[in-house]
Design goal:
By secondary structure, this protein is of the alpha/beta class. It has two domains: about 15-25 and about 100-235, HAD superfamily/HAD-like (Rossmann fold), CATH 3.40.50; about 30-95, Orthogonal Bundle (DNA polymerase, domain 1). About 45% of the residues lie in helices and about 10% in strands. It contains nine helices and seven strands. It has helices spanning about 30-40, 50-55, 60-70, 75-95, 105-115, 130-135, 160-170, 185-195, 220-235, and strands at about 15-20, 25, 100, 120-125, 145-150, 175-180, 195-200. Strands 5-4-1-6-7 form a five-stranded parallel sheet, sandwiched between helices. The chain has a two-stranded antiparallel sheet with strand order 2-3. Strand 4 (about 120-125), helix 6 and strand 5 (about 145-150) form a beta-alpha-beta unit. The protein is elongated, with a radius of gyration of 18 Å. The chain starts with 14 loop residues before the first strand and ends with a helix. Bound molecules: 2-phosphoglycolic acid and magnesium ion. Magnesium ion (MG) binds near residues 21, 23, 181, 183 and 203. It catalyses: 2-phosphoglycolate + H2O = glycolate + phosphate.
Length: about 240
């Protein structure tokens, strides 16, 4: 693990940037309820959680465009996107977190990272207005010094912009920071920023195996990520 040869193997990791949907919380059931309530308003048939899991990852607007594209051509999507986004956001905020559950060892992993002195940021493509109350509701907000959403900057993951901003906020070089996520968006953003990246295999990666995604290692849980970072740092100087 941590085999990335572009960085000094001896540089300790001082911060972790952690993804939200598909990494800390299984939010597909929330997406499912909100999307199908929106679809009902448009007299569209319900779609499955499996279909939605393939579309999540590149933020709300991309998601709702993909959802509408199940039924409409490009012009039809364009015509409805504004109203659909309004309906979706209203329904999502209404049920945010009610159907979502944390993955195994998320809080234990965050605790372990903090105990090692790592600084923690959450960078998600979810809108900040969804992410902040969700983290608070699940008791995860206190672990993070910084939370950025998909609408915090002009560009979102897989662009490196939000990750580079965290590095700058923390006063750290990218090679002192590891990003942990469930999708190619996280891995590509981390690579482009020059951060390490660990991936989890249990989230949503656009229907592709996480093994196809270039990373510095696959971890079964955030707790295992914490252990790996500690091992890396013990051999660092
Ligand atoms: O809401 C999304 O599109 C994905 O969010 P994530 O970046 O937390 O996985
Ligand atoms: Mg994710």
């Amino acid at each position: 693990m941590f085999t990335n040869s572009t960085k000094s193997p001896h540089s300790p990791i001082r911060a972790a940037i952690i993804d939200l949907d598909g990494t800390m919380l299984d939010t597909i059931p929330d997406f499912h309820v909100a999307i199908n309530r929106m679809r009902a308003e448009f007299d569209l048939a319900a779609i499955t959680q499996e279909a939605i899991a393939l579309m999540v990852g590149k933020g709300s607007e991309n998601l709702i465009r993909s959802v509408l594209a199940q039924d409409f051509d490009a012009a039809g999507v364009e015509h409805r996107i504004g109203e659909a986004m309004d309906a979706y956001q209203r329904h999502y905020l209404d049920i945010n977190g009610q159907h979502s559950t944390p993955y195994i060892d998320v809080e234990a992993g965050l605790k372990a990272m903090r105990a090692q002195g790592l600084r923690l940021a959450c960078v998600t493509n979810k809108p900040l207005a969804f992410a902040l109350p969700l983290l608070a509701q699940k008791g995860l907000a206190p672990y993070f010094e910084i939370v950025y959403g998909g609408d915090s900057f002009p560009r979102k993951k897989p662009d490196p912009m939000p990750l580079l901003q965290v590095c700058s906020d923390f006063g750290l070089k990218p090679h002192e920071v590891v990003a942990i996520g469930d999708s190619s968006n996280d891995a590509e953003a981390a690579r482009a920023a020059g951060c390490y990246v660990l991936t989890v295999p249990y989230g949503y990666n656009h229907g592709r195996s996480i093994h196809e995604t270039d990373s510095d290692g696959i971890v079964e849980s955030l707790l295992q990520a914490a252990t790996l970072i500690q091992t890396h740092n013990h051999s660092a100087h």
